[in-house]
């Protein structure tokens, strides 16, 4: 190995006599060796069938490089952080073996990726060994289960955990109190059916949308800093009113297609947050609101009741809502046109006809 090109954050070495023009990287065949200097140590990786396309896409910026080691790839991001991608693995054991056999400059890595994978159906106990991450990202996989230890190795560092479009049947919610830096938990498009009472002082965003959730346990729920909650597209058998009432910092609440209709009963949604920006109740087959069904709104809150079956805005139910919204920039949104209605101090009656008809007010 005599030919080297050294950049600001990485060096690339090719076999003797290989051209070093960046334009030829996608065309070169054969063995490649990539060396990434990290302080006084170097992370070295070797693979005969190095995927040139991935390398070529990273090099033009001269700020990142990608290394493929056995079953996973390692990316040095422009920030200097390390990203591990195990998307080509077939089993959890393969991931575990590859990670344990690698020589790491540090056990504190930035991001773990597993995506577009139809074979790995679990992340089993000890798969990460002593490696920890700031961000764990799983998307479009066959994953059904995650052992608590997989997450707990990152208990002091993990800030975001995302499992999208997979097949999770359960999740170790009971460990959340120990993840004191976790800000975002995204579990949308899985197969979760019940959610226990969640406890987390650090959580800011919780996305449980597009699962099969029928029940959310209310007793013991404690997420005092939660700002965003999404439970969209779940067949709720009982709405978790107590959970909503306890969210003192809530800003955005999504509850589209959750079987709330045809009548929203009094006391269903009692908000406590002074910073509430959006309440989305689209497509819930709602035709009627009882008085005080929705309370605690602020003057700048927006309430989306579009794509429901509301034809008459009963004064006893909607006047209190519109009186609050009229004090700021908030709005009540109905039907596909997002008609904004603001209270006027005159006899009040608004009729909104079904989609396709001319709307009168």
TrEMBL record:
Gene3D superfamilies: Ribonuclease Inhibitor. Pfam families: LRR_1 (PF00560). It comes from the Eukaryota. Keywords: Leucine-rich repeat, Repeat. InterPro entries: Leu-rich_rpt, LRR_dom_sf, SLRP. The keyword Repeat applies. PANTHER family: AGAP008170-PA, INSULIN-LIKE GROWTH FACTOR-BINDING PROTEIN COMPLEX ACID LABILE SUBUNIT. This is Uncharacterized protein. It comes from Darwinula stevensoni. The lineage of its organism: Eukaryota, Metazoa, Ecdysozoa, Arthropoda, Crustacea.
């Amino acid at each position: 190995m005599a030919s080297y090109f050294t950049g600001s954050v990485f060096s690339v070495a090719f076999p003797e006599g290989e051209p070093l023009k960046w334009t030829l990287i996608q065309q070169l065949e054969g063995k490649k060796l990539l060396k990434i200097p990290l302080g006084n140590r170097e992370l070295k990786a070797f693979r005969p069938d190095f995927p040139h396309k991935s390398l070529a896409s990273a090099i033009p910026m001269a700020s990142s490089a990608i290394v493929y080691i056995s079953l996973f790839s390692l990316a040095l991001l422009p920030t200097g952080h390390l990203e591990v991608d195990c998307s080509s693995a077939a089993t959890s054991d393969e991931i575990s073996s590859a990670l344990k056999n690698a020589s790491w400059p540090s056990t504190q890595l930035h991001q773990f990726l597993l995506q577009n994978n139809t074979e790995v159906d679990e992340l089993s106990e000890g798969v990460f060994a002593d490696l920890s991450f700031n961000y764990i990202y799983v998307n479009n996989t066959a994953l059904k289960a995650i052992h608590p230890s997989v997450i707990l190795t990152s208990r002091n560092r993990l800030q975001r955990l995302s499992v999208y479009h997979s097949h999770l049947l359960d999740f170790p919610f009971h460990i959340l109190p120990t993840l004191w830096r976790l800000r975002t938990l995204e579990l949308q498009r899985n197969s979760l059916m019940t959610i226990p009472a969640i406890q987390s002082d650090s959580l800011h965003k919780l996305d449980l949308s597009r699962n099969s959730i029928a029940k959310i346990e209310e007793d013991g729920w404690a997420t005092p800093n939660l700002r965003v909650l999404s439970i969209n597209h779940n067949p709720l058998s009982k709405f978790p009113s107590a959970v909503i009432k306890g969210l003192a910092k809530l800003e955005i609440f999504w509850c589209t297609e959750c079987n709330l209709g045809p009548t929203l009963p009094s006391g269903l949604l009692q908000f406590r947050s002074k910073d509430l920006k959006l309440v989305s109740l689209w497509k819930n087959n709602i035709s009627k609101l009882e008085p005080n069904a929705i309370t605690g709104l602020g003057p700048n809150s927006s309430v989306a009741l579009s794509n429901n079956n509301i034809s008459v805005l009963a004064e006893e139910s909607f006047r209190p809502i519109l009186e609050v919204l009229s004090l700021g920039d908030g709005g009540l949104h109905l039907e596909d046109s997002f008609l904004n209605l603001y209270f006027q101090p005159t006899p009040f009656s608004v009729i909104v006809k079904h989609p396709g008809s001319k709307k009168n007010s």
